[in-house]
TrEMBL record:
GO terms for molecular function: hydrolase activity. Signal peptide: none annotated. The lineage of its organism: Archaea, Methanobacteriati, Methanobacteriota, Stenosarchaea group, Methanomicrobia. PANTHER family: HYDROLASE YCAC-RELATED (PTHR43559). Residues 1-50 form the Isochorismatase-like domain. This is Putative hydrolase. InterPro entries: Hydrolase_YcaC-like, Isochorismatase-like_dom, Isochorismatase-like_sf. Keywords: Hydrolase. It comes from the Archaea.
Length: 83
C-alpha cells in the first residue's frame, strides 16, 4: 500500500506515474490485487521489471546486455528462457 499512496499523491501533483507492478507487494494477495486496481483506476500506468529494463537497455549491442540477461531476465523473466 505504500506504493499506492506514493503513486496516488504523485498523480495529484501532475506526474505521469508508472507502477512497477511485479515488484510491489502487500500483506495479503487481496490487498495487493485491490491496491493495484485502485492505482490503475486513478491512472497509474502498469509496467513490469522486464519491460522497464528492456526500455533502459534500448540497444542490445551494449556491452552490458549479456550481464542483463544473466542477472535480470534469467531470474525474473521467461522471455529469454535462461532458468
Amino acid at each position: 500500500m505504500c506504493f499506492a499512496y506514493t503513486a496516488l499523491h504523485a498523480l495529484k501533483e501532475g506526474y505521469e506515474v508508472y507502477g512497477l507492478i511485479d515488484a510491489a507487494g502487500d500483506s495479503t494477495p487481496d490487498a495487493h490485487k485491490y491496491g493495484v486496481k485502485r492505482m490503475l483506476q486513478a491512472g497509474v500506468i502498469p509496467i513490469t521489471t522486464e519491460l522497464l529494463v528492456s526500455e533502459w537497455m534500448h540497444n542490445w549491442n551494449n556491452p552490458k546486455a549479456g550481464e542483463l540477461i544473466k542477472e535480470i531476465y534469467s531470474k525474473y523473466g521467461a522471455m529469454v528462457g535462461f532458468k
